[in-house]
Amino acid sequence: MELAQFIIDNIEPILAEWEAFAQSLPPGQDMDSAALRNDAERMLRFIAADMQTAQSDAQSAAKGRGHQPMSRDDTAAHHHGRMRLVQAFDLAQMVSEFRALRASVLRLWASQRGTTESLPMPELVRFNEAMDQILAESVSRVSGDMERSRELLLAILGHDLRNPLSSIRMSAEVLSRTGLTPRQSELTAGIIRGSERMRKMVHDLLDFTRTRLGAKLVIASERCELDAVCRNIAEETRCGHPERQVCVESSGDCVGFWDCERMAQLVSNLVGNAVQHGQQNTPVSITIAGDEPESVKLLVGSQGPTIPPDRRLSIFDQLNRGQQATEHSGQGSLGLGLYIAKEIALAHGGSIRLVQSDQSGTIFEVRLPRMPAHA
Fold first, then answer.
1. Mean pLDDT, to the nearest integer, of 59-70?
2. Maximum distance among all alpha carbons in the chain?
3. What's the pLDDT tens digit per position in 319-372?
4. 22 and 142 in a common domain
5. Are 18 and 104 in contact (CB under 8 A)?
6. Shortest CA distance to 159 belongs to which of 193, 195, 196, 209?
7. Tally of domains in the chain
8. What residues does 354 pair with on adjacent strands?
9. CB 298 within 8 A of CB 365
10. Torsions phi, psi of 255, nearest 5?
11. In 3D, which of 304, 247, 242, 246 has the Cα closest to residue 279?
12. Where are the alpha helices (DSSP H) in the chain?
């Protein structure tokens, strides 16, 4: 009997083995038969139908390379992946179901034929192709839903942290204006600095989840003096890191039509990255060059470990934490600073790149059009 017809004629024995295996997994121990079987019957009928569909050599080759087109988004495999995620199956457990299903079908078919030898190779190939497709669809659904759930969790967490952080900062600022001892003033200043660092991290976290969920950064352009923004960030950095020298130099016209708050975030992230990864007690340099008529150039440099060549292409990727972060920086990092800086530059029609990382220092360059297209 051909394998496709065997599957159709023996769906119940195959499903019984599927159910028994699913129930042996920790999440399935308290599930009923309907939940355990889920979409297994529909997936088996899809496999049989796919095997009985005519297929050219080119289509077979494309399947073998994983290039076959994915089915619509409401298939049995998609739904199975979604339900297994809801039922608390992890990815490895779900994949093991398909491995067990493959083994069950082939073992039962061979048993009916009376031998495990000389199984028709073309049918085995078609069966494995169909199995691989439903596995890929289920994994794709689970992976996508897990990623979206994580991002939504980060967004909600970041949003809900803002109010208590604001309360902590405001309370500390009120305390700082009362008659405190020098030691109390020092501790209060530490609370303010810590809450400000957390505020920036929450801001970056919210921006990250917005961009990952497909939303664009909100840009409210206005006349902005980039040199003034850089000097403010330099002063804030010196207050938080009195041991570090932050130098600002500017030339030419440093005015453009940008979102001033976003520019401050971009500069703060670059300077914060330089402080965190740079060598202790070495200066951080900020240079603004407004000599070109259409754009302004910003350079942020520091002394520190050379960035390895194999990491330079991914330095702006999300959640990219430097492996050589200095422990003395005293500042936590989500690994989002450079990623958010890149998104802000791109949102303004600009660019950001690593222009140098060697023994003489590391330099990042940002180029911003004075009048972005969105403005």
1. 63
2. 93
3. 555 544 433 344 445 567 898 899 899 999 999 999 999 888 999 999 999 998
4. yes
5. yes
6. 209
7. 3
8. 364
9. yes
10. -100, 140
11. 304
12. 3-9, 11-24, 33-37, 40-51, 57-64, 76-86, 91-113, 121-176, 182-212, 226-240, 260-277, 309-312, 337-347
Distance (Å, whole) CA 291 – CA 252: 5
Token digits for 241? 């890191």
364 and 239 share one domain: yes
Q: Looking at the chain, how many residues does it have?
A: 375
Angstrom distance (rounded) from CA 142 to CA 146: 6
Q: Tell me how far apart the alpha carbons of residues 15 and 4 are, in angstroms, rounded to a whole number.
A: 15
Q: Are residues 273 and 350 in the same domain?
A: yes
Cα 19–23–27 angle (5° rounding)?
A: 130
The answer to whether 324 touches 284, Cβ cutoff 8 Å, is no
Tell me how far CA of residue 213 lies from CA of 149, 150, 314, 351, in angstroms.
11, 11, 20, 22
DSSP line for 229-240: HHHHHHHHHHHH
How crowded is residue 124: how many other Cβ atoms within 10 Å of its Cβ? 13
The reply to whether 217 falls in a domain is no
Report d(CA 263, CA 190) in Å as an integer. 25
Q: Answer yes or no: do 236 and 364 share one domain.
A: yes
**Phi, psi of 101, rounded to the nearest 5 degrees:** -65, -45
Q: Residues 89-146: pLDDT tens digits?
A: 888 898 999 999 999 999 999 888 876 567 788 888 889 888 988 888 888 877 777 7
DSSP three-state, residue 316: coil
Which CATH number fits the domain that encloses residue 198?
1.10.287
Query: Is residue 134 within 8 Å of 76, Cβ to Cβ?
Result: yes
Tokens of 208: 């990250």
Interior CA angle at 38 toward 33 and 42, to 5°? 125
Q: Give the pLDDT of residue 141.
A: 79
Contacts of 196 (CB under 8 A, 6+ apart): 169, 236, 240
Are the CB atoms for 369 and 256 separated by under 8 Å?
yes
Label the pairing between strands 246-252 and 351-358: unpaired
Domain CATH number, residue 71:
1.10.490
Q: Distance between CA atoms of 133 and 157, rounded to whole angstroms?
A: 36
Residue 216 near residue 331, CB atoms below 8 Å: no
Residues 185 and 265 in one domain: no
CB 221 within 8 A of CB 260: no
In angstroms, the CA 201 to CA 339 distance is 13
Give residue 273's domain range. 222-369
